[in-house]
Specification:
The protein starts with 8 loop residues before the first strand and ends in a 6-residue tail after the last strand. Residues about 1-10 and about 450-455 have low confidence and may be disordered. Helix 4 (about 190-235) runs parallel beside helix 5 (about 255-300). A five-stranded antiparallel beta sheet has the order 4-3-7-6-5, sandwiched between helices. Strands 9-11-12-14-13 form a five-stranded mixed beta sheet. It has helices spanning about 25-75, 90-100, 140-145, 190-235, 255-300, 305-335, 350-360, 380-395, 460-470; strands at about 10, 20, 105-115, 120-125, 150-155, 160-170, 180-185, 345, 365-370, 375-380, 405-415, 415-425, 475-480, 485-490. It is built from nine helices and 14 strands. The chain has about 500 residues and is α+β, with helices and mostly antiparallel strands. Helices cover about 50% and strands about 20% of the residues. The chain is rod-shaped.
Length: about 500
């Protein structure tokens, strides 16, 4: 079972089970959404990594700046208020920190070691501004920072992560005082909170964009695949009895071109089925008539020997006509096969002379040979002879004794392309304008031939089939009462047929 539109489609398996088949519209939307999701995920990850790197670099620059300022100040070793050198680290730290204005997320402090023989530490010196968390006053945090073997690190505090850098400070030269540590810290969670808020907004926008992209993909794919859906629906409704369904084509893209080609295919199928029906109807009619005649004569045949001979003659004549019809039908069927022609290089003049000698035996007419083309051509001489003889036979059937029938050939060249022309012209009644195209169809007839039964209507169809097999054509030039001229126009060079 196959459903229309964008519904889920399933097909019956030989074993009785059903196999799920995802509609193309859903598949396109799914791939677009997955692709967009992958791109947006990559964008979010890259943005997050970039922002994290910027925060880390900004914190490192802040720590480096504070360290550089302290090192420069400590290297001078002079109190700018008094102009005298520092004699202890406590004074050095206090004077330096009094001149600093740290950021809200920073903490700067100094820690002086325990003096020799002292029972308590000399103490700590912290910035004037109140930090988010006073790490210098928290014993655990202070111990984690001061006892770390590294000059930089991070530690968790109640206010989040603290990135720190420390510098070992020796006592002033000649001073009998303890050394200490200069520590700079930065609370990074505040900056990361901004990043997280930005990422949440970015994720929300990405989700909305993903929904919009999926909706757009659903709508666009529906518009693009509409002709395909119409093709599928039309194919499901088409039967051998009804090939009239067509698809309304809009747009100029590849899918619209597919719909146009599908309509063209339906046109060809409809024409093929119509031709097949006409062919079957005409063939059955043509064969039914001699069968009826044969059956009727056989059923009424008496015991008189003379009557029997006459019936046998009539029956044989009808059977011969049936055989000719069957042979002509087989020839037309073979014309569609690749081995229908056996081309070779032949002299056009010799071919024309041979055809002229053969057609003169068709009837008592005023046979004339018009101009004869000179040159070597590449074609199937037997098929061309067959077509020319058929044209001559057609001319004989539409003329009377003493009427003129002319045969001729020519070799022309235009734009470097050589063409062989072979024509048969008669002085018969000509072809009515309404019959000029129809007489080349199977079982089609024009005016009734003179003095004989009409043919099966396959002769000119055979001529056209032979010409088209050579990639050529048959042209008719005629006027009522002025005769008719049929011309075979065939490519003369190898590779053209």
């Amino acid at each position: 079972m196959t459903t229309t539109g964008t519904a889920t489609m399933t097909t019956d398996r030989p074993g009785g089970g059903r196999r799920y088949r995802m509609p193309a519209r859903v598949r396109i939307m799914t791939w677009v959404v997955l692709l967009m999701a992958a791109v947006l995920a990559l964008v979010n990850i890259v943005v997050w990594q970039t922002l994290e790197t910027e925060v880390s670099e900004r914190v490192d620059r802040a720590l480096d700046q504070e360290m550089a300022e302290f090192e420069e100040f400590a290297a001078a070793g002079v109190d700018p208020r008094t102009g005298e050198s520092f004699t202890d680290l406590d004074s050095l730290f206090r004077v330096h920190l009094s001149r600093q204005h740290p950021d809200r997320h920073e903490i700067i402090f100094g820690h002086v070691d325990r003096a020799p023989g002292a029972t308590v530490p000399t103490g700590r010196v912290r910035q004037g501004q109140e930090p988010l968390f006073d790490a210098s006053a928290d014993a655990d945090t202070l111990e984690a920072v001061l006892t770390s073997p590294h000059g930089r690190g991070s530690v968790q505090t109640p206010e989040g992560g603290l990135r720190w850098a420390k510098l070992r400070v020796a006592p002033p030269d000649g001073a009998d005082v303890p050394g200490g540590w200069f520590v700079v810290g930065y609370f990074v969670d505040a900056d990361r909170a901004d990043i997280h808020r930005f990422l949440r907004v970015l994720l929300l926008v990405s989700a909305v964009g993903l929904v919009l992209a999926g909706s757009a993909a659903w709508w666009v794919s529906g518009r693009i695949l509409a002709p395909v859906r119409l093709v599928r629906q039309a194919a499901a409704q088409i039967t051998e009895e009804d090939l009239t369904r067509r698809i309304d084509v809009t747009g100029n893209d590849d899918v619209a071109a597919l719909a146009e080609q599908f309509n063209a295919m339906l046109d060809r199928l409809e024409e093929a089925f119509s031709t097949q029906r006409r062919f079957v109807d005409d063939a059955s009619h043509e064969l039914r008539t001699p069968i009826t005649i044969v059956r009727g004569h056989l059923e009424l045949m008496g015991d008189d020997p003379e009557e029997r001979r006459e019936v046998v003659r009539l029956v044989t004549d009808e059977l011969d006509r049936m055989a000719r019809i069957v042979e002509d039908l087989l020839l037309l069927a073979k014309a569609q096969r690749p081995d229908f022609l056996h081309c070779a290089k032949v002299s056009l003049a010799e071919l024309t002379s041979d055809i002229d000698a053969k057609v003169r035996a068709l009837g008592h007419r005023d046979w004339r040979l018009d101009e004869v083309g000179e040159g070597v051509v590449h074609l199937d001489p037997q098929r061309v002879t067959q077509a020319a003889v058929q044209l001559a036979s057609n001319a004989v059937r539409h003329t009377g004794p003493g009427d003129t029938v002319v045969l001729g050939s020519a070799l022309t060249e235009r734009d470097g392309v050589r063409t062989a022309e072979l024509w048969v012209r008669d002085s018969g009644p000509g072809v009515a304008p309404g019959d000029r195209e129809r007489i080349f169809e199977r079982f089609a007839r024009g005016e009734t031939a003179r003095g004989d039964r009409p043919g099966a209507g396959l002769g000119l169809a055979i001529v056209r089939a032979i010409a088209e097999a050579h990639n050529g054509e048959v042209r008719l030039r005629s006027a009522p009462g002025a005769g008719a001229e049929f011309t075979l126009i065939l490519p003369a060079d190898e590779g053209s047929t």
